[in-house]
Fold DNA topoisomerase 1.
Amino acid sequence: MAEKLVIVESPKKAKEIQKFLGKDFIVKATVGHFKDLPEKEMGIDFKTFKPKFIIKSSRHKKILSEIKKLAKDKEVYIATDPDREGYAIGYFMYEELKNKAKDIKRAEFHEITEKHIKDVIKKAPQFEKTNFGLFNAFLGRRVGDRVVGYTLSPYASKEIGGRFSVGRVQSPAVRLIVEREKEIKEFKPTPYYVLYVVLEKDNIKFNANYQKAKIEDKEEAEKIFNDIKDEKYAKAIKIEKKQVKQKPKAPFITSTLQQAANSKLRFSPEKTMILAQDLFESGLITYHRTDSVRISKEAISGIRQLIEKEFGKDYLPSRARSYKSKNTQADAHEAIRITNFVNLDQQKKLVEKKGLSEDHFKLLKLIYERTVASQMADAVYDRTTITFDIKGYEFRTTGSILRFAGYKKVYQEEETENIQTLPEIKKDEKVKKLDQKLEEKWTKPPPRYSEASLVKKLEELGIGRPSTYASIIKTIKDRGYVVKEGNALIPTENAFHLIDYLDKHYKWVIDYDFTKNMEQFLDYVEQNKKNWKDFVKELYEKSTKRDIKPISKKMLNYALDLAKKHGKDISDILDNPEALSKFIEEHKETKPTEKQIAYAKSLAEKTGLELPTDVLEDKEKIKKWINKAKKEAMKTYKLSEKQKAVLVKNGKEDLIDKPEKALKWLNSFFKKRRKK
């Protein structure tokens, strides 16, 4: 029987590792986090800030019980992922097994390849000697986020009216999208003018632009246009020729992979991370949650050999390239790179062999190209800039010729400049002017965030960390604060309500600098320089400090309606939130409205669900019953032909088979139409 037990998170990864380690080892998976804070209570003692972690499900109880039996008197390697979350799962497992196992070691796998896994197992340190700061940083984040969410979400829901959730990191992300939308709405376009001439030599036509890219004065633009109208030639007064070298970009880190996959492949950050997880677990890429751009010497050697074989020595710089991470802590990890140094055709065969999809290959191809390009020679351009004189006015043109593709042979960035071919022109030479154009253009508002540009902005502001960008964006979409139209993220009405509310009453939650400082605090906790409880304490004190309980317009109107109905004068308590809340509690209507009763009865007919008498007499009960019945009704709901036509017209035909999502989108669409 095997004497050694290896514990990982994923069953797929366990299966892959088992192949490499053979019969002396048993490899078991925890199936993600097996412990977490309870769902229906805070789960934190506010005197000590001690959290109450519980086993997540009966399935996890069964898995844990099996692992405990297997670990008895064995050598155990805890090999959960090499980040805070992975370490936390490992730490919980260590606590469960430390009195059962013979010995517990920590193994960090950065790639799932036979050599790497065997090397890591051989050098694995005792778990007690690893950095417990990783677990403390996890505690700070998990407990701190619970305090903010569970304290402020009920306040926001009650005081705005509706269901609202507040998050330490998600709310600043919503603020970014709301602020951008306000900028767009408040933007007033102004005209400007662009003037250029069309020149020709040796049957080569090219454009030369007036030296001022934007002319803001219409009269000035028209004067220059008219002054040069009759001129047939442009005189070359200055010619600059230079060789321009372009270096490749560093290999991918989590944020740049998410951005590139969104821009080039239209993958959401969440989808990118799911695909990358599969590629990692299948042994095709290194660990995908990293902010390090470093590549190991061994890997660089493999990449350079691949470049020489596939492209030749000319494409290989004389010395290997090295890249430095912004964060010095990051360099314990590597960048996201390929693990098999073979060409693209063979990479595709590996994907097929592992039973992965076409989308997996698309992402692997992107990682392959960026990995290989990062170690290739510069791209070399010949760039010529010519300044022309036309009637005393200067016009400029630039042309580039790619002399050597270098890394561009593999990885193309999206070109931002228009590269045109220029004929050979000498100084003082006169070139024929064929035409001239004066175009009126208008300034444009800033673009809405895409998922790629939002990730970039979050990283720039220091909000969140590599492992959280995808979940932040997923959360704000799932909670109805943001809808995606095309590639743009658009805030909903609820997003505006939430940010207005937080701006008035809990400004710190959406303060970018505060959020950034709290992320840095967690980094210090990880380095054992700060205490995680101080992190939670600060969030707790800020979340529970309520000097003035605000009175929302909705709350005020409701109280006035109740006062009128019951013949009460409440003029003396209109500015007193506590008294107003007490009045509402004592006088609020507990019986459902006729409209609610009628709606519930019609749903009961449609769905066949039982509608108990006590539900028809209680406002809260009928609300819950209606929500349950609506979900049931949605299972058999059929969209009308008119609804389908609107979806097709707006490029949303993929929602036709998803009636619940379709209705949500249609409601939002018609609401916006009515506003316009």
The chain has 23 helices and 16 strands. Residues 4-130 form a domain with the Rossmann fold fold (CATH 3.40.50.140).
